[in-house]
Amino acid sequence: MTDLDQLSSTAAADVAAELSQLPPDAPRAAPGISRPRWFATTVLPPMVLGAVLLGVWYFISYGVLTPRKRFLLEPPHRVLTEGFFDWDSFSEILQALWSSTKVAMIGLVLSIIIGFALAIVMSQAKVVERALFPFMVTLQAIPILALVPLIQFWWGTGQTARVMVCIIIAVFPILVNTLFGLSSADKGMHDLFTLHNAGRATRLRKLMFPSALPAVFAGLRISAGLSVIGAIVGDFFFGKGDKGIGQLLRKFANDLSGEQLLASVIMSSLLGISVFLIFGWLQNRVIGKWYDSAGGGGR
């Protein structure tokens, strides 16, 4: 084993030690906690809160809103029957959701490529970081609605414009978290790599990137949800091409179809949750052994 391999192994061990201090991503029963207690402390609270929210929903629908205004918040059972159990409505929602999913995934992939590339370049040259970072912050601070006319001017109102909205919204968290992770490697390990004349590529591959993995996945999970939002927002304002969930939301709102509107909102949220969970699963697959090394510490 070469000296650099030993250094990279030591760096990986240090990263694992740091990761072991983090809480597991998915709640699970800690050793020594009985299953009923785990159920009461982990599963029961969201179930109770969900039941309370359903009760509040019914109270607003029937106790606050008059029959003439009930379209503003239809009761849950009508949302199920009209929005989900009616195949004509539900199939239209699914088709629109699939169109928005494709746009979100394209935008997310491009955001990952751009964010990773910029973060790596900025981590290797401080002058590049100082030059680019203020403009990235400025781009993130501009309300996306203010950019809609400019996006429409350059890329029209089709799928390309929606993808651009996704990139503008989703690229910043990936860039910031990746840059932070690449810069968070232990200074002592950097000194050891310098002592053994390690090149930039070796240092990046064996020290900086392993140290950056937790922050990278945090950025990916944030950007995954934001890309879904970007796809829906872009589709809402750019109405040409395949009908996405944004166009469907506008249609149902104009038609005062409260049941289908709420069903579309629920399906949109489920899409965001699904993408978030997929990246959580991927995180566990990539660095799950480091997380599994954590001891107790359950709350």
Largest sheet: none
Terminal Cα separation, in Å?
42 Å
- Could you please say which CATH topology of the largest domain applies here? MetI-like fold
How many structural units, i.e. domains? 2
- In CATH's first tier, which class of the largest domain applies? Mainly Alpha
Mean pLDDT: 78
Q: Report the radius of gyration as a whole number of Å.
A: 24 Å
Helix-residue proportion:
over 70%
Q: What does this molecule look like?
A:
- With 299 residues, this protein is mostly helical.
- The chain folds into two domains: 232 residues, MetI-like (MetI-like fold, Orthogonal Bundle); 43 residues, no CATH class.
- 80% of the residues lie in helices and 0% in strands.
- It contains eleven helices and no strands.
- α4 packs across α10.
- The longest helix is centred in the middle third of the chain and has 38 residues.
- The C terminus is likely disordered.
Strands, helices and their partners?
Elements (H helix, E strand, L loop, with lengths): L2 H17 L15 H30 L11 H9 L2 H38 L1 H16 L2 H12 L3 H25 L3 H9 L4 H38 L7 H10 L3 H35 L7
Kindly list the characteristics that best describe this protein:
299 residues; mainly alpha; MetI-like fold; 2 domains; 11 helices; disordered C terminus
Short description:
This protein has 299 residues and is mainly α. The chain is built from eleven helices and no strands. It is 80% helix and 0% strand.
